[in-house]
Design goal:
The chain is of the alpha/beta class. Helices cover about 45% and strands about 10% of the residues. The longest helix has 28 residues. Bound molecules: D-xylulose (XUL) and cobalt (II) ion.
């Protein structure tokens, strides 16, 4: 492959320099080669770059156009611009030391005038991606299809009232699955941005949910047919762009998957900002997925407590991420998933190096959280506290409750004849909050 010019001149591979470094373009906590349990940190974290934000985001918002202008975006031929952009992206993946990337079909190749033309464009960029992956060693964490941008999807894709649109979306996902397989994608994500409704006045909710399930069954069947072995993931989000999205949160996602017999084929891709938009903490969503054995991957970002929409910021909150990492590590990690930085630069962050600062902060905060969480789990104070709190279920009548060997009559007798009034036992919340803070300082 021909050697392209440096798209990020003056910025080399980001080095790990340790917590005391004054260099803003160095890692302070993320040392990808550091071994934990005999495995490098890069393999524990499996960081991934989101192509749509890092290389298609221009800083536009509903009040004004883009502010971020990249030098590689100039040129008249859309395919050749797309190829150069992809070369810039892979240079960035290497310099920031991300082992993975993620994309929507339409992020990497321009949509054509017909499905056939779009597929042809995609094929050209997929061939390019294959070469770049081979040359750099960067791998595909997951692929997905953009089923929300084009006007044809304004009333949904799989949940569109028009079967013609359903068919078009099916064809698009068929191709996206083939492409994800071709690039060795380890997962495939469904985020149902417009799979919801604006008003019940024009909506048959039951039929739309049935159609969504049919669509997912078809995807699972097709993956089997072509031998795609990646993990299917649902990425819940309560709203935006629709007023009410069907995959509202992990709990409603589990109910949906179980209702339609899809629960064995899917896990969850949990996004921090989607969790908070649903009125949950990030940790809550992780724990709900883990409890169902369906924790799959993470879209790493943060919202803003003062704003009610998906701001997709880089997360630098060590406390929030430490608690999330405790839950993730306790659940045994993410398997084929990883941490995909589904986060974008703020509109005034127009410099090339802003992209580095943003990801350095994200990687470092996660790496710090990983280390602190390991310490918390290894010291076991928190784990012991929780285990002790439930110890009354470990033996005697508590054990009988858990194993289904007692009933209301027996328990009533026990209370009347032996147990009497339960003693109040402190939940010790403030003590525990202070305990967590001690690990962070
Ligand atoms: C939107 C979002 C998507 C998905 C992939 O809020 O998170 O970018 O991650 O479609
Ligand atoms: Co996301």
């Amino acid at each position: 492959m021909k050697k392209s010019p440096a798209h990020f001149p003056g910025i080399g591979t980001i080095a790990y320099e340790g917590p005391t470094t004054e260099n803003p373009l160095a890692f302070r906590h993320y040392n990808p080669d550091e071994l934990f349990d005999g495995k490098p940190l890069s393999e524990h974290m499996r960081f991934s770059i989101a192509y749509w934000h890092a290389f298609r985001g221009v800083g536009s918002d509903p009040f004004g156009p883009g502010t971020i202008v990249r030098p590689w975006e100039s040129g008249k031929n859309a395919i050749s611009v797309a190829k150069t952009r992809m070369e810039a992206a892979f240079e960035f993946f290497q310099k920031i030391r991300a082992p993975f990337w993620c994309f929507h079909d339409r992020d990497i190749a321009p949509e054509g005038a017909s499905l056939a033309e779009s597929n042809k464009n995609l094929d050209q960029l997929v061939a390019h991606a294959r070469e770049l992956q081979k040359a750099t060693g960067v791998k595909l964490l997951w692929g997905t299809a953009n089923l929300f941008g084009n006007p044809r999807y304004m009333c949904g894709a799989a949940t569109n009232p028009d079967a013609h649109v359903f068919a078009y979306a099916a064809a698009q996902v068929k191709k996206a699955l083939e492409v994800t397989k071709e690039l060795g994608g380890e997962n495939y994500v469904f985020w149902g941005g417009r799979e919801g409704y604006e008003t019940l006045l024009n909506t048959n909710l039951k039929r739309e949910q049935d159609h969504l399930a049919r669509f997912m069954h078809m995807a699972v069947d097709y993956a089997k047919l072509i031998g795609f072995k990646g993990q299917f993931l649902i990425e819940p989000k309560p709203k935006e762009p629709t007023k009410h999205q069907y995959d509202f949160d992990v709990a409603s996602g589990i109910a949906f998957l179980r209702t339609y017999g899809l629960d064995r084929a899917f896990k969850f891709n949990i996004e921090t900002n989607h969790a908070t938009l649903a009125g949950h903490t990030f940790s809550h969503e992780i724990e709900v997925a883990a409890a169902a054995g369906m924790l799959g991957s993470i879209d790493a970002n943060a919202g803003d407590t003062l704003l009610g929409w998906d701001t997709d910021q880089f997360n630098t909150d060590a406390r929030e991420l430490t608690l999330a990492m405790v839950s993730i590590l306790r659940a045994g990690g993410l398997g084929s998933g990883g941490f995909n930085f589904d986060a974008k630069l703020r509109r005034p962050s127009v410099d090339l190096d802003d992209l580095f600062h943003a990801h350095i902060g994200g990687f470092d905060t996660y790496a710090l959280a990983f280390k602190v969480a390991r310490k918390i789990l290894a010291e076991g104070k928190l784990e012991k506290f929780v285990a002790d709190r439930y110890a009354s279920y470990d033996s005697g009548f508590g054990r009988e409750i858990e194993t289904g060997r007692t009933n209301f009559r027996q328990l009533e007798k026990l209370v009347l004849t032996k147990l009497g009034e339960p003693k109040l036992r402190s939940g010790k919340q403030e003590y525990l909050e202070n305990l967590v803070n001690r690990y962070l300082t």
